[in-house]
């Protein structure tokens, strides 16, 4: 081949050699195929799940026709309704509190130099990288210790004794969500121009007015993104919740897991489809908000 | 009490071991256009930020209208800033940006709108008041920043290289506009720049800064014609330096010798000058005349012989570099005024005479 025999040249203007071009084309195709496969593995199971939630058959394996009856029967399923309510309560409360504390944490980390800031920084990321099972086990140990101590101290026993349940689940979700919110908000703060706050103060705004009129509106997309992430994580969380929940405190994922252990029912497909829809809606919503904000801001 | 608009008294700022601003004292009058001029890193921005209140003083005191303010936060100082990057609020329209300082006070709606309207008119931006900063050109953003900073009538306006982001044409137009605006408003301007031309053009007075210190304060004319040291002479405009020996000192003048030739008379007010010492003579290139042959009438002029080393023709002027017989060389800026001027016909290698009025040369000691 003439192209292959051509002496190597450092001249940038030499056109790409033919063998290189072929390699590039080959590489492009492989990568393209890879993307298709990846998408297939990611989405095929979800697609199957959604399709079979409308399947008019008790058996998961065969398509028997379209129906909405599984969605209807969900509305009659007391335990699923209860778990859904639990999930929503936990998600709402933990998101609200974690968003406030997480944002405050992020502001403190970005704005103030205090002793032990580095260490605190590292510790903040721990809930994110810590294996969920470890978090779960340690929280369980922590709660049983605390609760038994409290029970002893206040002489509580039997029905009035404190035990794990929805409250411990909520506390736990607040805790790990703070970390996630803080990380997301910090990213936003990193791109925030300090001179904007200085400009506000320069024009007579005190710290609070500056925060309310300049900082908050500008980091709001980040806070919202953090909140939506927190909400989704709380709705989805299984492993940690599994450890710290108790009687009457089952969230939807826990409930679904329980159902599956008994029998695979198309109701589960229906619940999952609903959860999926909510999650996707939240994420798309946050993206839209961020996008619209983006148009307004400088970038 | 005094009646200065801004006074800096022995102000220093230390970052770690590094003295960014080193014992600066300045007195800026009401309504003055005052420039801080110096190369990058000499502490101009730091000084400005201390006046605005963004930076704590390491030492010294700042007075605004005679009141000490070093302990006050920025929002309690009646001083506004035009930031180098403009720092316009991206989530607000031009109107909201400009009205910000009024919106956070208890200004009535009609007065607020009135004042915003007036400053927007002043900077010719009325038609853009509903745009956001991202939809404006650099020059327009600059005007918004200016309007926002003057709308609440501060006592002092601080400007940190506000023109540096603009292209040359716009920069030159804005110089004039800024100057007019300042006259119109009567506000004290403290203007930071590293562009000596800009400072000379706009300022009533200039403080030339060098490594955190003030090298010289004076009107543009004083700084240009009577620089106090080699640093200032070199930083402002173009200058010829000729090493010399001081022969004799008298009131405001000295006699010096460059090389072995006959002595020159030069002006001098340098404190350290004494007979027998070394010094440097400075002469601006435009003050030097070049002659094809020995001029007949010399009067009070100093004359020196030399050889042309280099010649550059730039339309309005011709620049010569002349090596003097007695040592050293000078740049000469000759205006191309007369058609058929024999000087323009001179070439590299030609022997010439150069001359200047004796007062144009100045002795510096450093
Ligand atoms: N926060 C800071 N911490 C440490 N050093 C600083 C800080 N701010 C400024 N400096 C240093 O102080 C010196 C003066 O900085 P300053 O910004 O005042 O310079 P400048 O004259 O405005 O320069 P330029 O023309 O480049 O804007 C510089 O050497 C700079 O590195
Ligand atoms: Mg600067």
How many extended strands of chain B?
Answer: 20
The appropriate CATH architecture of the largest domain in chain B is 3-Layer(aba) Sandwich
Largest sheet of chain B: 6 strands, mixed
The general outline of chain A is globular
**Main sheet: strands, sense, barrel of chain A:** none
CATH structural fold name of chain A: MetI-like fold
Just give the CATH class of the largest domain in chain B. Alpha Beta
Low-confidence stretches of chain A: 1-12, 295-299
Q: Count of DSSP E strands of chain A?
A: 0
- Unique ligands: adenosine-5'-triphosphate, magnesium ion
Query: What is the chain-wise order of helices and strands of chain B?
Result: EEEHEEEHHHEHEHEEHHEEEEEEEEEE
List its traits.
heterodimer, A: about 300 residues, mainly alpha, MetI-like fold, disordered C terminus, B: about 375 residues, alpha+beta, Rossmann fold, OB fold (Dihydrolipoamide Acetyltransferase, E2P), 2 domains, 6-stranded mixed sheet, 5-stranded antiparallel sheet, 8 helices, 20 strands, binds adenosine-5'-triphosphate, binds magnesium ion
Question: How would you sum up this structure, described in words?
Answer:
The complex is a heterodimer of chains A (299) and B (366). With 299 residues, chain A is an all-alpha fold. Chain A has one domain (77-298): Orthogonal Bundle (MetI-like fold), CATH 1.10.3720. In chain A, 76% of the residues lie in helices and 0% in strands. Chain A has helices spanning 2-5, 18-52, 69-76, 78-111, 117-129, 132-153, 166-190, 194-202, 207-236, 239-244, 252-262, 266-296. Chain B has 366 residues and is an alpha+beta fold. Chain B is 23% helix and 36% strand. A 6-stranded mixed sheet of chain B has the order 6-7-8-3-9-10, with helices on both faces. In chain B, strands 13-12-11-14-20 form a 5-stranded antiparallel sheet, with no helix packed on it. Chain B is elongated. The mean pLDDT of chain B is 91. At the A-B interface, helix 8 and helix 9 of A face strand 6 of B. Bound molecules: adenosine-5'-triphosphate and magnesium ion (MG). Adenosine-5'-triphosphate binds next to strand 2 and helix 1 of chain B.
